[in-house]
């Protein structure tokens, strides 16, 4: 019965969003989404999300300086930098390489770079998390990924690349929204919204159980905390936060 209700509500939602489905069918939605809608919308959502998750991020990134390399420098790679909302949490002098599959965040990115002049910005690479071939193996001390694993094509390939580019003893930091408890109303609504949400928000999947991927990924040490970040009217409340050491 629950499955039938999910399908019925999914159809209702698709009906409401039919103009987007039509634009997608005509090949117009994706380029528009990538260039205009997603950067604009993501920045608005990130502003709300940053306020709600600030204390978790401050706590998460507090031990970043512990992972400085033998030279005393901290070389950090961020996957899916977007407009750079994490820069404020990185320690002074940190050398940052930004990567994103979408090159259309420049406006917000340059604004955040100006605001955070305590960092050294090394380069910006247009690259997917699954393919960081431009980054040499074992060349970074820390990799950061927030609200990105929900929309990569392959979580396991992305985590393999993370482990490849990290030096031994380096750390991978994450904060991601995940699937809710299966018996909960949140999970019910995640299932209802799934197809339309994925289309509207550039491939974002609501029901990934990312903690399982992280547990399978061969980190020598893994700290995961399940937390709740309440976002108004959005089925993305359950999150995980933590770090894994190579």
UniProtKB/TrEMBL annotation:
<feature type="transmembrane region" description="Helical">
    <location>
        <begin position="7"/>
        <end position="29"/>
    </location>
</feature>
<dbReference type="InterPro" id="IPR013216">
    <property type="entry name" value="Methyltransf_11"/>
</dbReference>
<protein>
    <submittedName>
        <fullName>MET7A protein</fullName>
    </submittedName>
</protein>
<keyword id="KW-0472">Membrane</keyword>
<feature type="domain" description="Methyltransferase type 11">
    <location>
        <begin position="77"/>
        <end position="174"/>
    </location>
</feature>
<keyword id="KW-1133">Transmembrane helix</keyword>
<keyword id="KW-0812">Transmembrane</keyword>
<dbReference type="InterPro" id="IPR052356">
    <property type="entry name" value="Thiol_S-MT"/>
</dbReference>
<dbReference type="InterPro" id="IPR029063">
    <property type="entry name" value="SAM-dependent_MTases_sf"/>
</dbReference>
<dbReference type="GO" id="GO:0008757">
    <property type="term" value="F:S-adenosylmethionine-dependent methyltransferase activity"/>
</dbReference>
<dbReference type="Pfam" id="PF08241">
    <property type="entry name" value="Methyltransf_11"/>
</dbReference>
């Amino acid at each position: 019965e629950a499955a039938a209700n999910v399908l019925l509500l999914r159809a209702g939602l698709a009906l409401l969003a039919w103009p987007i489905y039509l634009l997608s069918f005509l090949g117009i939605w994706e380029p528009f989404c990538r260039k205009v809608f997603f950067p604009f919308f993501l920045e608005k959502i990130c502003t709300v999300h940053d306020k709600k998750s600030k204390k978790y991020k401050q706590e998460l990134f507090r031990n970043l300086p512990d992972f400085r390399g033998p030279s005393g420098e901290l070389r950090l790679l961020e996957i899916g930098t977007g407009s750079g909302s994490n820069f404020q949490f990185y320690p002074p002098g940190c050398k940052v390489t930004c990567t994103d599959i979408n090159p259309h965040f420049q406006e917000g990115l340059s604004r955040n770079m100006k605001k955070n002049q305590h960092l050294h910005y090394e380069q910006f690479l247009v690259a997917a998390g699954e393919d960081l071939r431009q980054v040499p193996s074992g060349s970074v001390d820390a990799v950061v990924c927030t609200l990105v694993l929900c929309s990569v094509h392959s979580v396991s390939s992305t985590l393999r690349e993370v482990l490849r580019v990290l030096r031994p003893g380096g750390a991978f930091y994450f904060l991601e929204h995940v699937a809710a408890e299966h018996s909960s109303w949140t999970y019910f609504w995640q299932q209802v919204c799934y197809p339309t949400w994925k289309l509207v928000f550039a491939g974002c999947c609501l029901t990934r159980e990312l903690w399982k991927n992280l547990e399978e990924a061969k980190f020598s040490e893994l700290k995961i905390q399940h937390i709740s970040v309440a976002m108004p009217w959005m089925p993305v409340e359950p999150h995980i936060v933590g770090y894994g050491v190579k």
